[in-house]
């Protein structure tokens, strides 16, 4: 494991912890898209189908369990927790899941490495992860006033993707058989979706102002 | 290792 991969995993982990902590301590999910959180739960479920069949490392298994557990907990909080769910703004979070899920599923069925259930599901999870942030970005754009923790959450998620790309570049040069163009394309698309957000995030940070996205 | 590319990542 290289430093970029480890840093990427850690920012990913922090992003989830920041979100869980925000929801748990202030009992509010204001500004958080349930649609995005449900898509992530689906991403992790379909990607980690191998969790009990292929052992890679203890680190790998533990991280998978954390991502599965945290994503389902977040969905549970927003849907079921009697205080948290009151802060969920359903009318603003209107992105339709199937606009993303169905095209990704079709793409995964046709464009994959191997036509087996596990492989198609794994590929589907890559495609879906690439676009799963969209409902959240749309919500940020709509609400405009973004609290610090939500801003940090999205920033950490974007940083995780950027670090994974550095990891792939590193692996490409150090591991001769490391070629995986589906991962590459999905990963680059995913990172590009954050470009706009990053721009405004750094602007607000530089000027020491509250983060606001243009209408 | 015999792990396929990408499968050892999260």
UniProtKB/TrEMBL annotation, chain A:
In its UniProt entry, what is this protein called? ER lumen protein-retaining receptor
Gene name of the record: ATERD2
Q: Name one GO biological process term.
A: protein retention in ER lumen
A GO MF term: ER retention sequence binding
Query: Where does this polypeptide localize?
Result: Endoplasmic reticulum membrane
**Pfam families, alphabetized:** ER_lumen_recept
- Sorted UniProt keywords: Endoplasmic reticulum, ER-Golgi transport, Membrane, Protein transport, Receptor, Transmembrane, Transmembrane helix, Transport
Look up keyword S-adenosyl-L-methionine and say if it applies.
no
CC annotations in GO: cis-Golgi network; endoplasmic reticulum; endoplasmic reticulum membrane
Q: How does it sit in the membrane?
A: Multi-pass membrane protein
Residue ranges of the TM segments: 55-78, 98-115, 121-140, 152-170, 182-202
For this protein, the record's InterPro entries field holds:
ER_ret_rcpt
In the record, the note on similarity to other proteins reads: Belongs to the ERD2 family.
């Amino acid at each position: 494991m290289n430093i970029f991969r480890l840093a990427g995993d850690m920012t990913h982990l922090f992003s989830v912890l920041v979100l869980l902590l925000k929801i748990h301590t202030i009992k509010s999910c204001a500004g958080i898209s349930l649609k995005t959180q449900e898509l992530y739960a689906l991403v992790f479920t379909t990607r980690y189908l191998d969790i009990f069949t292929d052992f890679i490392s203890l680190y790998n298994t533990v991280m998978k369990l954390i991502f599965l557990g945290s994503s389902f907990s977040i969905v549970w909080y927003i849907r079921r927790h009697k205080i948290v769910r009151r802060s969920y703004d359903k009318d603003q979070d209107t992105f339709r899941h199937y606009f993303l899920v169905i095209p990704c599923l079709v793409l995964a069925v046709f464009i994959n490495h191997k036509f087996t259930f596990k492989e198609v599901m794994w590929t589907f999870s890559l495609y879906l992860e690439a676009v799963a942030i969209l409902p959240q970005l749309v919500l940020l754009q709509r609400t405009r006033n973004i609290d610090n923790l939500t801003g940090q959450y999205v920033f950490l998620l974007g940083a995780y993707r950027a670090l994974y790309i550095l990891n792939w570049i590193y692996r490409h040069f150090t591991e001769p058989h490391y070629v995986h163009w589906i991962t590459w394309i999905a990963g680059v698309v995913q990172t590009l979706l954050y470009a706009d957000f990053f721009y405004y995030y750094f602007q607000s940070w530089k000027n020491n102002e509250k983060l606001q996205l243009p209408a | 290792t015999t792990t396929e590319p990408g499968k050892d990542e999260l």
